[in-house]
Amino acid sequence: MDVDLAELDVVNLGAMAGMAGSMRILFLKVPESRKTLLLSEIDRVAQDFKVHRDEIHTKLIQIMRERLLVHLRGLPQIVESWNRPEDADPLPSQFARSLTKEVGFLQRVLSRTLHEVDVQAIFRQVVVIFHSQISEAFSRIEISTPQAKDRLYRDVKLILGCIRSLPSDNLSKSGTPNWGQLDEFLVQRFGPEAS
Questions:
Q1: Quick check: helix, strand or coil at residue 114?
Q2: Phi, psi values for residue 153, rounded to 5°
Q3: For residue 168, which of 6, 33, 102, 124 is within the disulfide window of CB 3.0 to 4.6 Å?
Q4: Cα 184 from Cα 194, distance rounded (Å)
Q5: Can you give the pTM of this predicted structure?
Q6: Dihedral sign (CA 131, 135, 136, 137)
Q7: What's phi and psi for 2, nearest 5 deg?
Q8: For residues 21 and 121, what is the distance between their CA atoms, to the nearest angstrom?
Q9: 149, 163 in Cβ contact below 8 A?
Q10: Are 137 and 74 in contact (CB under 8 A)?
Q11: pLDDT by residue (tens digit) across 22-72?
């Protein structure tokens, strides 16, 4: 996953949007005849910055959705290998490891680059997408052996660990961070003691 944040210069956008409010103060000594025009221009520029920031957030969320879909396309072949008797790999699948690695990378980059509130807004939506798409994909797979069930469990636990670590202000009533459909899938498939 290659996120070129030089193109997505959100830090500068945020600084410029913040400066717009400060610039209003500078215009206290501007003649009244020009104040209205200048203030309306500052407001317009600030609104343009906000719109651009929202577009960048949407693009980042879209990138993560697309990366998830790429990984999900390979899931049937991985599950097929789980159902073979010779499969004894104790690790989560390449699907789960690669997906969580990419999400972790994006989180580290964005956390260094954006304000915390922006990172939370982005990951709040990523969490919802991951819960719905992954739980739907896992609910469609055929598990025919005990080792396949163990592999599925390891994947779900690894992905949930990643989801729960994402910066988001989404707490469930139980206090579990970023709780959602994949948690429900885990309980449904493996019982309440699995979560």
A1: coil
A2: -60, -45
A3: 124
A4: 11
A5: 0.78
A6: positive
A7: -120, 105
A8: 22
A9: no
A10: no
A11: 666 666 777 778 878 888 888 888 899 889 989 999 999 999 999 999 999
